[in-house]
Amino acid sequence: MKPASPFRELQKGGGRVRVTFDGRTFDLREGGNLAAELLAAGIRSFRKTPVSGAERGPFCMMGACFDCLVVIDGVTRQACMCEVSAGLVIDRPGAEGEGDA
Fold first, then answer.
1. How far apart, in whole angstroms, are the C-alpha atoms of residue 100 and residue 24?
2. What Pfam families does UniProt report for this protein, alphabetically (predicted)?
3. Domain that holds residue 23
4. What is the spatial distance between Cα 68 and Cα 47, in angstroms, rounded to a whole number?
5. Over the chain, what is the mean pLDDT?
């Protein structure tokens, strides 16, 4: 079941691929912007700040703010700068011992 989201997909259809985010499985549009696809799937918090623990999610959507950091295959990346591809395993920074930036 897809969680409620205030975001909507502008383009319907397109091939869907299965990805895992924080242990949950999602079918996202292949080749779509990872941050946008996760937002459309109902994910609002991508990470927590290391000092206060405040939740963060995409803000600028152009790679300037680093609020959308995620860990993909052990590498911390900006979700807004990544494309969706089949089999991505995405974790929140700090979930597997990664440092949160």
1. 21
2. Fer2_4 (PF13510)
3. 16-91
4. 7
5. 87
Report pTM. Answer: 0.81
Token look-up 């779509």 returns 32
3-state SS of 3-36?
CCCCCCCCCCCCCEEEEEECCEEEEEECCCEHHH
| CATH code for the domain in which residue 60 is found | 3.10.20.30
pLDDT tens-digit series, residues 42-78 = 999 999 998 999 999 999 999 999 999 999 989 999 9
Residue 11 is predicted with a pLDDT of 63
Is 3 a domain residue?
Answer: no
How far CA 85 is from CA of 6, 41, 43, 46, 51, in Å, comes to 24, 15, 17, 18, 32
**Alpha-carbon distances, residue 26 vs 37, 56, 60, 77 (angstroms):** 10, 20, 23, 19
